[in-house]
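Entry 12.
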Amino acid sequence: MNNQRRVRRSSNPSLDQPNQTDQTQSFSSGRRPIFATPKQNTPLKPFSGRKILYRFGLVLFGAFVAWILLFSDWLNIRGIVLKNSNTISQSEIQTEYETYIAQYPIDNKYFFINEIRFEDAIKNRYPTVAKVNIYRTFFFKIVVDIKESTPALVWKTGNQAWIISDDGRILKPDNGKESSLGSVQDTAQITVEKGDQVTNQGFVTFIRNIYASSQAYEIKVTGVEIASTTQEATLRLAGGLAVRVDTTRSAQDQLKAAQATIATAKKDNKPITQYIDVRVPGRTFYK
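Predicted 3D structure (tokens):
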């Protein structure tokens, strides 16, 4: 008896071989073949609470900076320095600053002061100020550098006499010390106050030129009068003679015309007793 084990063989040899087509399809289809190693677990992320702590720290830092800028006294202005003022004292500008800060508290902070707004407040309070420069210095101080208006004329109206600036604003009452300034009498007697704009710079310049140039034309002007307008004026001369002038034209041209008219009248032995009118260019009237 044959003891060798017999092996049944299939009648179809292809069934006994591995299916190469199935393995190839398994790889191409993306399915894990049965012999692939297991997928590794994703590494754990860093502690997510660090981001929360970082953001919370930023918020605290921002709040601290805001507190320093807005609420603490560390950045407050610690002094006002006044420069180049003859009519405003250090104590007056300090009082003006305190009044201003009461209205705008945020401007007490060194980095937040509104220079333009404070400049306007000073100019409105003190008409003698023509220009204000405000700038910061070290040690949290503010410098107020003032340029004052130049006294130009004495403006008389009613029983009052005022000093006006070269731009036509009332500066202060006349105390009689500005004797070198020419005067203008407002016969309309309009009441004015300190800081009022009573005329313009062109009129002031014209009247000052009249006073400065009259001696060169042998005319002595003792005063100037205006009525309802500053575009015309009457010059009062020594001896009572009046000269009517146009303040929008050249002062020198009109003084020259008045001088020629006086000379002609003397030559013709026709004295002028009341007035000379030189307001019309090229023509002169007198009486």
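Annotation: The chain has a mean pLDDT of 82. The helical segments are 20-28, 49-70, 90-103, 115-125, 201-213, 251-267.
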